């Protein structure tokens, strides 16, 4: 208990940057700092990420709507094809004696081509939806990574002062010199 009260009483005492040891002062340790940084990131980044996801969702809905319109057009074509089929069937009754088998072949070809067209449009719609979903996921991943990287760089820049930065550079240069001597 004495250590806890000492940490509150001795706010004026800060150890030198060159010393090592355990910091028992809960107010000066990293979990609180990290929780504050994460809280700020969540608070301010939530709106941006929400807007990005809403825009992406709207684009996907628009793509689905366009696909549905294409599907509606295909259904309209199917109805036209059915009307044409009815017309062909009426003509088949008139020309049954002269070319019953030819008319039946044309009818099957027409149905098959319409079925293939509908199948292609359905496949196109599914591919478009899948592509847009993947693109949305990739964009969100990229933006989250960019935000995390900017946050990490900002945290590093705010934590490093000039003296500590110069000492880190000197230590790294020394390590590279030692590594070079070992490899030579």
TrEMBL record:
Subcellular location as annotated: Membrane; Plastid, Chloroplast thylakoid membrane
InterPro entries, per the entry: ATP_synth_b/b'su_bac/chlpt
UniProt GO cellular component terms: chloroplast thylakoid membrane; proton-transporting ATP synthase complex
Keywords: ATP synthesis, CF(0), Chloroplast, Coiled coil, Hydrogen ion transport, Ion transport, Membrane, Plastid, Thylakoid, Transmembrane, Transmembrane helix, Transport
Pfam families: ATP-synt_B
Chain segments annotated as transmembrane: 32-49
GO molecular function, one term: proton-transporting ATP synthase activity, rotational mechanism
Assembly information from the UniProt record: F-type ATPases have 2 components, F(1) - the catalytic core - and F(0) - the membrane proton channel. F(1) has five subunits: alpha(3), beta(3), gamma(1), delta(1), epsilon(1). F(0) has four main subunits: a(1), b(1), b'(1) and c(10-14). The alpha and beta chains form an alternating ring which encloses part of the gamma chain. F(1) is attached to F(0) by a central stalk formed by the gamma and epsilon chains, while a peripheral stalk is formed by the delta, b and b' chains.
Other notes: In plastids the F-type ATPase is also known as CF(1)CF(0).
Name this protein carries in UniProt: ATP synthase subunit b, chloroplastic
